[in-house]
Design goal:
- This protein is mainly α and 168 residues long.
- The chain has one domain (6-162): Vanadium-containing Chloroperoxidase, domain 2 (Orthogonal Bundle).
- Helix content is 61%, strand content 4%.
- The protein has helices at 6-21, 25-53, 58-65, 85-101, 125-138, 144-162; strands at residues 107-109, 120-122.
- The chain has a two-stranded antiparallel sheet with strand order 1-2.
- It is globular.
Length: 168
């Protein structure tokens, strides 16, 4: 089942890790709790910034000033460009999950295998977050600054999330 949202994709990743590593219930709950807070706060922070800065998407600028027929590879969302939501939420998720599973936790993401896409190997959660971010540049819906600043914003949110007390 394809999930175009960062939270949905990260939830699938955590489910795969829980099953592969046969995590005890307390670690699974901690992973999902921190992930939930991270992506929710990432969404809030990102959308607050989107409407504060209200930048146009690449397709809008290109169509107006360069080539009126140019189109993106991905469907362009109908809301402000900056910062990248995929970058912000994925970075927040990556930092929170690194807190739970450790630095350089390598994993294979099989979320979209049933849909005919290949499994993706990652050396760390941050590696996956960076790939999620840059995919928005390749798809034509974000400028690089939106991705880089989104990753920074998400990292800050994830660090705050990782400091939350999850154990008695």
């Amino acid at each position: 089942m394809l999930s175009p949202t960062p939270p949905g994709h990260w939830i699938f990743i955590v489910w795969q890790i829980i099953e592969k590593d046969k995590l005890p219930i307390d670690r699974a709950v901690e992973a999902f709790a921190l992930l939930g807070v991270a992506v929710a706060d990432g969404f809030i922070g990102c959308w607050d910034a989107k409407f504060q800065y209200d930048l146009v998407r690449p397709v809008t600028y290109i169509n107006k000033h360069i080539d009126p027929k140019w189109q993106t590879l991905l469907i362009t969302p109908p809301f402000p460009e900056y910062p990248s939501g995929h970058s912000t939420q994925s970075a927040a998720a990556a930092v929170a999950l690194t807190h739970v599973f450790g630095e350089n936790y390598a994993f294979t993401d099989e979320t979209h295998v049933a849909d005919g896409l290949i499994a993706r190997d990652f050396t760390s959660f941050w590696h996956a977050a960076e790939e999620a971010g840059i995919s928005r540049l390749y798809g034509g819906i974000h400028y690089r600054a939106a991705i880089e600043r989104g990753l920074e914003q998400g990292r800050c949110i994830g660090e705050y999330t990782a400091r939350l007390k999850t154990r008695a």
